[in-house]
Amino acid sequence: MPLGVAQWLRSHVPRKARGALYAGKRIVTGNKISNDYEKKSRRIWKPNVVVKRLYSDALGHEVRLKLTTHALRQIDRSGGLDRYLLKTPDRLLHSDVGSDLKFKIGLAYKQRWAEDAAARRAGQAAAAASAASIGAGGVGLLSGPTAAAVAAAQRQVADQLLRQQQQQQQQQQQQQQQQQQQQQQQPVRQE
């Protein structure tokens, strides 16, 4: 067999495999040999293809895929669908569905990273403003997200204290009103 044909056969991907994740598994042909080793029967072995719903962290929902059990094991080993698709090179993926999903997951991660970077920049600006307003109260020594977290925690504690004081005042007012009502209801004794 010429080298080009053998190379083409090894690199050829069936149409069914392009719509699924086969993880390198292909249809294998060979012979079934009888017990007495005299008769050979041609046969083919097809990959074990299953339909599964796999969760994608980046997309935030489950994706319904056709894949081989070998691909399922590879996904488990790599730590999830996202990691498997992002780590596997396109030349080894051999799947239109896999390439499209890989592109969508990459975009989702890029958007998430951009949002996180914007949040960090906003947090640093807020931390700098709160550190300037607080002065040397200890927060000024911190920078970035840590200072923002400390400032947020301080605001939460202050809000909780304010709510507790308001509740105590309301309880005192209710007790005073109850005492006044009880005094008004008691008859006055004249002797």
TrEMBL record:
GO terms for cellular component: mitochondrial large ribosomal subunit. Pfam families: Ribosomal_L28. It comes from the Eukaryota. The keyword Ribonucleoprotein applies. Belongs to the bacterial ribosomal protein bL28 family. PANTHER family: 39S RIBOSOMAL PROTEIN L28, MITOCHONDRIAL (PTHR13528), LARGE RIBOSOMAL SUBUNIT PROTEIN BL28M (PTHR13528:SF2). This is Large ribosomal subunit protein bL28m. It comes from Raphidocelis subcapitata.
